[in-house]
Amino acid sequence: MWAFIHKLGSPKWFYTISSRLQPWFWGLAILLLLVGSVWGLAFAPSDYQQGNSFRIIYVHVPAAILAQSCFVAMAVSGVIFLVWKIKIADMAATVIAPFGAAMTFVALFSGAVWGMPTWGTWWVWDARLTSMLIQLFLYLGVIALRGAFASRDSGARAASVLALVGVVNIPIIKYSVNWWNTLHQPATFTLTERPAMPMDMWLPLLIMVLGFYCFFIALTLTRTRNEILRRESAKRWVRELVADTGRRG
Amino acid sequence: MAFDSFSALLAMDGHAAYVWSAWGLTALLLIASALHARTERRHLMQNLKRRQRREHHADRGKAHES
Amino acid sequence: MQVIEPKAELGIAVRATIKRDMTLVLRRRSEVINPLVFFALVITLFPLGISPDPQMLAAIAPGLLWVAALLATQLSLDTLFRSDYDDGSLEQLLLSPQPLPALVLSKTLVHWLLTGLPLALMAPLLGLMLALPGQSYAVLAFSLALGSASLSLIGAIGAALTVGLSRGGVLLSLLVLPLYIPVLIFGAGAVQVVILGGNAAPYLAILGAQLCLALMLAPWAIAAALRISING
């Protein structure tokens, strides 16, 4: 068991395995995103209340889901790094953070743009949008804290602790913001909660969500490999690898 | 197909600005992050290769001197 | 050699830490007074910036008082570990055989006693100036006292993470303020609900629950963060 975990954590092993996995994830991501986009944009029926503006759901919801998953993934990697000192976990956390922040921003932006035709204003202090905004600040805090340390290892450990504190707090923040929202604006209808969506509306949504996840996995694999090259550049196997690709052109 | 024509798809019944701006930003960020990962890898590889070549030359230089 | 039981030893260490920190902070009296002055100053700015109309001020007073108190607590955080870090006594604290979470908890307790509690006691006075309706003063002070304890604990995590950085000030606010939001919502909510004629007990109960959660988890996070800041 321990041998397996440490093998998994070895950069060289990860580099080899991920080079076999990543083309599949990139291919799957592109395929799913293309099918989902065409279906969602052109073929899914328009909503009887919101008309065609509801098509924003196909980017808003996957981005919002992914933004939350990224935070959890970042915190889990942080724990693995803190407890078992596995460097790969921290490399993954490093590359997940900016992507998670970007997805949070996409969710906020698409939510605001969706708000205009639905509510008539660009910004409403809706519970979901507000907690998304707070989550964006949490992401920025983790990224800033990592960058503030001169030593990479201390920065990594500090960012892991902060990600862990954040992931404990996110449910509490969500709960409080929901409470606050029901108190201050009773019964506005939310963007994404709707009774029984027909299948040709939610199926493209499901495809888009899966496509976003595949994209996330593929990007994380590729960028973690880049981090390995950056941090392990003095290692023998990296030097041999570079020399090999050089010979092949 | 939910639309009669391609221009109707582009117009989105008057919601074009909202739908296409949200989709556009999403597509932009996804494509940009994918491209960034690619160029990052190419730069890293180039740097590593350059460094190895330099070290190689330095080693050979040392061998000549001695 | 005198044999002291481990339990008693921990008690002695905690008491010694509290006494030492109290003496140190009370010697530099400005560290206690500055947050209070800041609090009063921020509250003064709002009638000047918005309107001196008592009705309007009364409507926003709970939120204003809470946000201002929160910012005052936040500003005082940087001093929590800074001087100990500079003179090396933080390293001594880490080397001591006593469990670090208990020691940082006592340091945080001192921070609350000298920042959160005075702010809570001062808030009714400023509430008077904002024409806060009469029945809510006790709840304002109590919710602030309860909430600022959570704020001290959460803030100490951020302070411990940034104590090793030379310019941690703005970063500290960026890390800590988002985590303060649940406390702010229920603290300001408690005062608001009393003004509207409701019962503040559920709000205060949730504030208490947040404090319990913070008491359980924060000391460990603070200890881990201090270890990173010192050894890194």
Q: Can you walk through the features of this model?
A:
The complex is a heterotrimer of chains A (249), B (66) and C (232). Chain A is mostly helical. Chain A has a domain of 171 residues. Helices cover 81% and strands 0% of the residues of chain A. Chain A contains 8 helices and no strands. With 66 residues, chain B is mainly alpha-helical. Chain B has a domain of 34 residues. The N and C termini of chain B lie far apart (78 Å). The mean pLDDT of chain B is 84. Chain C has 232 residues and is mainly α. Chain C has one domain. In chain C, helix 3 packs antiparallel against helix 8, helix 7 runs parallel beside helix 9 and helix 8 packs antiparallel against helix 9. The mean pLDDT of chain C is 89. Chains in contact: A-B, A-C. Chains A and B meet through helix 2, helix 3, helix 4, helix 7 and helix 8 of A and helix 2 of B.
Task: Outline the fold blueprint.
The complex is a heterotrimer of chains A (249), B (66) and C (232).
Chain A: H1 2-8, H2 11-43, H3 57-84, H4 87-119, H5 127-148, H6 152-184, H7 199-231, H8 236-248
Chain B: H1 6-11, H2 16-65
Chain C: H1 6-27, H2 30-49, H3 54-76, H4 79-86, H5 89-95, H6 100-129, H7 137-162, H8 169-195, H9 201-231
Helix pairs in contact in C: 1-6, 2-3, 2-6, 3-6, 3-7, 3-8, 6-7, 6-9, 7-8, 7-9, 8-9
